[in-house]
Every structure is written in structure tokens, then in C-alpha cells.
Amino acid sequence: MIRTTPSHQPVIAVRGLRKAFGPKVAVADVSFAVDAGEIFGLLGPNGAGKTTTVECISGMLESDDGGISVLGRHPSQEGTVLRSLVGYQMQTSALPSTLRVEEALRVFASFYPKPAAVPELLDTVGLTHRRKAAFSALSGGERQRLSIALALIGNPRVAILDELTTGLDPQGRRDVWALVERIRASGITVLLVSHFLDEVERLCDRLAIIADGRTIFDGTPEHLIARAAEANPEIDNLEDAYLALVDANQTHYEGASA
Ligand SMILES: Nc1ncnc2c1ncn2[C@@H]1O[C@H](COP(=O)(O)OP(=O)(O)OP(=O)(O)O)[C@@H](O)[C@H]1O
């Protein structure tokens, strides 16, 4: 249930979200709420509707129906204000290959009224020694850290991180996880879209699972394991619990449409 009392207003509240692209319903009915200071995970199979949901939250897409509130504001009606309060991790593949790390941060800083200090941000993401490196010379992990820095350049209160550690080696993943924990410790609320259950278990306080455009779970990782164990007592870890729940949902819908 979404809590709306002023003393405990969620930072992000999504209620009954719906978004279609022509005949394709990408998001049919998604609801969840993220509290201040949380790292909240958004999970679901490929094509479930996660990116569409976060693009509606960030104001990049306009929803067809349902309510979204971010820091008490509506993304499509108050997008200008929210743009500096919500940092969305962009895909760095969009950056010119010759652009240097520090230049990229300075260019993006110029778009915001109160940007983060570039030297401090370089330090936070561990790229000070690579500040003069061209984008094309960065490793996968360094590119990922740059994309996180770009999400933080506007000094946001909320960071939306999508596919945070895809393609990184084990050390790179751990470095990025530590960075996300530092981001949270600095007071930023994090919405994390992920396919990796170990990442979610390590980082997230709570999570929502979306399947076929609908929220099928909203709660803590422990709650998810307990829910799955009710149906199958052998389930004792998050990955098995997640897979069992998604599978049960698929069977339910296939059964309903048979
Ligand atoms: N612009 C669009 N036009 C038509 N269909 C779209 C568009 N964007 C997304 N879709 C479709 O909507 C559904 C949900 O897509 P979305 O990208 O939100 O899923 P996702 O959960 O983020 O998937 P993944 O984990 O693969 O990134 C998919 O079937 C996708 O093909």
C-alpha cells in the first residue's frame, strides 16, 4: 500500500501505472513506493516493463494512466524541477569517443543549477587518476563509474541506476556496489533496476518484481524467500525464490488465457 501521510511520504510512489506503445501494453498495472534513504530494487524478466516504468518516473515518458509522485511532484507536470532532483544513469555509449572524463562531467554540470563539484565527484567514483582519459580509452568498469557520476552530477536527491553492473568482472562489480553504498550513505535514495539477485541481496532494502507489466511482489528480500518457501519449503535463497515466483506468475497467466 502506498503511504501518503505527510510525515511519511515516500520519495517515489507509483500507483496503478499503465503505459502502452500503440497496441503493445508495456506496463499494465505497476505499483510500489520507495522510502527516503532506501536502495530499492526493481526486478523482472526481459521485457517485463522495468525500463518503461523508470522512464515514466524520470519524466522521459508520459504515462497513460495511474499516479506517479517523485519527491511529492508529478514527473510530466513538474519535469523541469525534477530534472535536477532525479539523476538517471544514462548509457555512456552515447558519449563521443574523444571526450575526456573530466570534460564530460563539466559539460553535464553546466546543465544544472547546483551541480556537484567535479573533483569531489571524480574522487567518489574513483576516476581522479583517469580524469584526462578519453571515453574510448576507458575500461567497462570505468565507463560504468562515469555513467554513475553523470547521474550524480546534478546533485540529485534520487538516483535511478539501470543495469548497473552488466558486463563487469567480479572486482568491477564489487567496486560499483561499494560506490552505490557510498551514494546511499550520502543521503541519496536509490532505485536500482537489476537482473542480478546477488546484487539485489547485497544492496537492496526492499524490492518490487514486475512480470508482464504487473507488480507481482513488493517487500524485503527476506519476505520474498519466506513467500516462496510457503509453496516450496526447499527454497532458501533469493534467486530460487525469485525464479519460483516469476514461474508461478507465468503459469497463472498461461492458465488464465488457456
Ligand atoms: N518504444 C517502444 N515501442 C514499442 N514497444 C516497446 C517500446 N519500448 C518498450 N517496448 C516493449 O514494451 C515491453 C517492456 O519493455 P521494457 O524495456 O520496459 O522492459 P524491461 O523490463 O526493461 O526489459 P529488459 O530487462 O529486457 O531491459 C517489451 O515488450 C518491449 O518490447
From TrEMBL:
Localisation: Cell membrane
Stretches assigned to the ABC transporter domain: 12-237
GO biological process assignments: response to antibiotic
Pfam families xref list: ABC_tran
GO terms for cellular component: plasma membrane
Recorded topology in the membrane: Peripheral membrane protein
One MF term in the entry's GO annotations: ATP binding
Alphabetically ordered keywords of this record: Antibiotic resistance, ATP-binding, Nucleotide-binding, Transport
Protein name per UniProt: ABC transporter ATP-binding protein
Species this protein is from: Tessaracoccus rhinocerotis
Phylogenetic classification of the source organism: Bacteria, Bacillati, Actinomycetota, Actinomycetes, Propionibacteriales
